[in-house]
Design a protein that fits this description.
With about 290 residues, the chain is of the alpha+beta class. Helices cover about 20% and strands about 35% of the residues. The longest helix has 24 residues.
């Protein structure tokens, strides 16, 4: 096993669209048991024990039978053959067939009340020079603090429901990151996930809040969410995807590892009022107890 690793982040995918995320040590017995169960999930002779996964720093527990396992994604990639020495190899081959997982998402209409939405829209139009100077405008000015608080408070209030609908067991939210982005600055976001780097691995749920003046002054700008294909224990974007319209005053939620891109936005003029604005952010999990 990789001796230089302190921990391995796991995303465990279960039947019914459920999943959980946790960190384990490289020599964890749970890590070995999970992959042994996955390798034997279709074997009629395999009789694995019920899994018991601690959540919320041990305050709650997720139980599931080995037959419920669908796939396991790891960060970083691990060598399964070093995980199982030859004398302790699972009953079946460690060659897992590719699997495609359909991306789940939630889009909430009328995310903010009418007055808050209008106040936010007026603010970005009145500060459009700030956006022209910087492709990403992080809302630090005091004049924006109350609006940012309003948005974050709304996110905190609905977070438990969002996690439930996405099939994620509840976890303590350590932080809600957010940044305000004019789509003019990113005419096409490349296919990517939101927690690929070590410093972003605690991002669990991504959200995109869309808003712009009416009537709509642009075409395009849809979000394309790609399904995930797992090959040799590595997650890659699948060829299949779902296209979501950037509807005004709506918020889109999806799992942060999900690969996605924004299609080219075509405004009818250079005026900032003819562009889409995106409040992009992440629900970040707190430290989880290792298995």
């Amino acid at each position: 096993m990789q001796a230089d690793l302190d921990s391995i982040d796991l995303t465990i995918l279960l039947r019914g669209g459920h999943q959980c995320q946790l960190s384990v040590s490289p020599d964890s017995k749970l890590l070995r048991s999970l992959f042994e169960a996955l390798a034997n999930v279709k074997s009629e002779d395999y009789r694995g024990e019920l899994f018991k996964i601690p959540l919320e720093e041990g305050r709650s527990t997720l139980y599931f039978p080995p037959q419920s396992l669908v796939a396991i994604a790891t960060q970083p990639t691990i060598d399964l053959h070093s995980l199982f020495p030859e004398t302790e190899a699972p009953q079946k081959s460690l060659s897992f067939p590719p699997r495609t997982l359909k991306t789940e998402y939630i889009q909430i209409e009328n995310f903010l009340d009418r007055q808050s939405h209008q106040t936010l829209t007026n603010y970005v139009i009145n500060h459009q020079n700030d956006f022209r100077r910087s492709p990403l405008y992080r809302p630090y000015p005091h004049s924006f603090a109350s609006l940012r608080t309003l948005l974050v408070d709304r996110l905190k209030a609905i977070a438990p429901d969002i996690l439930s609908k996405l099939g994620i067991p509840h976890f303590p939210i350590a932080e809600i990151e957010a940044e305000l982005t004019p789509a003019i600055a990113v005419p096409q976001l490349q296919i990517n996930g939101d927690n690929d780097a070590p410093e972003t691995q605690r991002r669990s749920v991504s959200f995109l809040y869309f808003f712009y003046p009416e009537p709509r002054g642009f075409m395009g700008g849809q979000i394309r969410l790609y399904d995930t294909q797992i090959e040799n224990n590595v997650c890659i974007p699948a060829k299949s995807y779902q296209t979501i319209e950037t509807r005004n005053n709506s918020a889109l939620f999806f799992l942060s590892p999900t690969p996605y891109e924004m299609l080219e936005l075509k405004p009818r003029s250079a005026n900032m009022a003819d562009h889409c604005f995106i409040f992009r952010g992440w629900l970040c999990r707190g430290e989880t107890k290792r298995g």
